[in-house]
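Notebook entry, structure prediction.
Reason for the run: the old model in the group folder had no record of what sequence produced it. Starting over properly, with the input documented here first.
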Amino acid sequence: MTLLDLTIFLPLIGFVITLLLPKGNGDTAKKFALGFAVVVFLLSLGLLGPALANPGSMSFETKCDWISTPKIQYHVGMDGVSLWLVLLSTFLTPIAMLISWKYIDTRVKEFFAFLLLLEFGLVGVFVALDLMLFYVFWEVCLVPMYFLIGIWGHDRRIYAAVKFFLYTMAGSVLMLAAIIYLYSKAGTFDYLLIMDMLKSGKLQFTAAEQMPLFLAFFLAFAIKVPLFPLHTWLPDAHVEAPTAGSVMLASVMLKMGTYGLLRFCVPIFPSAARQCAPWIVALAIIGIVYGALVALVQPNMKKLVAYSSVSHLGFVVLGIFSFTQAGLDGAVYQMLNHGISTGALFMLVGYLYERRHSLEIKDYGGVATPAPNLSAIFLITTLASIGLPLLNNFVGEFLVLQGSAQVNIWWTAFAGLGVIFSACYMLWLYQRVFYGEASHEVSSHMHDLTSREWVAITPLIILMVWMGIFTQSFLPSISASNKLVLEQSKPNVEYHVQLQGGSNAR
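New structure, fully documented this time:
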């Protein structure tokens, strides 16, 4: 058993033990779950050394039989991309627990247990190297998030939870069908074996096969991103979810979609990916501009941040389908940046909600007077979100725009509008919430950051600055993995495509 295996299964063990704790003792359950999550994060830090030493290949690889017929294996491993997504998951789970410490007061044991189960599923998704195992982890993630929204959410929580579940399940069924078809062609679910067979020409797809398979995978991932126009479940889910649910959904769960595009869609179906790239990029750019414009008119803080996610993740899709080194590096870096800055925004909106019990922007104003520290932290997070140089989002957006400019300058010109609009809606939000004269309701309910809230938000602020300045802590390992993806996505160089007439083309 490797350190990666421990990182995967410890949250599952913690989930089971937390559920078995006696009822009516919420404090014990909270402390136990938080302790388990902190231990998992500390263990995951041990993954850094070996993974960074050889980021272009799989480290901590474990392969053993799980089901004999059909042959499904427990096969996991990590490279320079999955490493950072695993760390993002283990890093944010204890923070999500910390911000829920006072807010969650019903079914406490179950809430914290579901956060551990969600962590188990998320880590598994990012390291699974067997397609069926990947699908199992993918589906596992749905269950805890469904309950987090449906039980501990706001007034329309059942509607939002069911909508979230149905949207994701619809795409998942198509992906499952494509995985089964792949198995019928390749005789294996093993991702690395499938890639080797594609490279050698032992596995070939006709043009009529590759396109439907690509679209089946793509639809499942595009719903999860979410890519315009498949985004409509996201604002509802965010608005109704508890703060911890919004943080984990925005920061990590949405990355399942972009990770899937990078890991599966582009390398396994390179011809179809390049053929579809123009209209996928068009949808990404529409999402960037549309998400920003809709965010600009939102009266609800959570909806505003949710639509900003649609805009920011459009940059990630644009970077992936630019098929350039800079674009791919920027896409992965932006995945991490979005996880930090948007996660922090949802946390801070949650802090405001716990004080004022309202998400409507009109119910605020003048918050900076009674809560100066909260306003300062919110400003730093706002500037990071809009891509101010020396903060994290700037690097990711710059690399994506640089990569897209190498392919089509018009892509960059239109996508650049999203950067301008993001400054408009975020700074206008900040002005309306924190400036002006504080009303009696705001003054009486608003207090500054507590010690627990400082502990939760400070690591995210540090990372916003660190990732904006010390980019070489992350980019070399990301670039090494993306270089391999680029090589795998060149169908005319590395791969054989079986044409309709039966002849082979390289």
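Summary: Residues 5 and 62 are 8 Å apart (CA to CA).
The old model has been moved to the deprecated folder.
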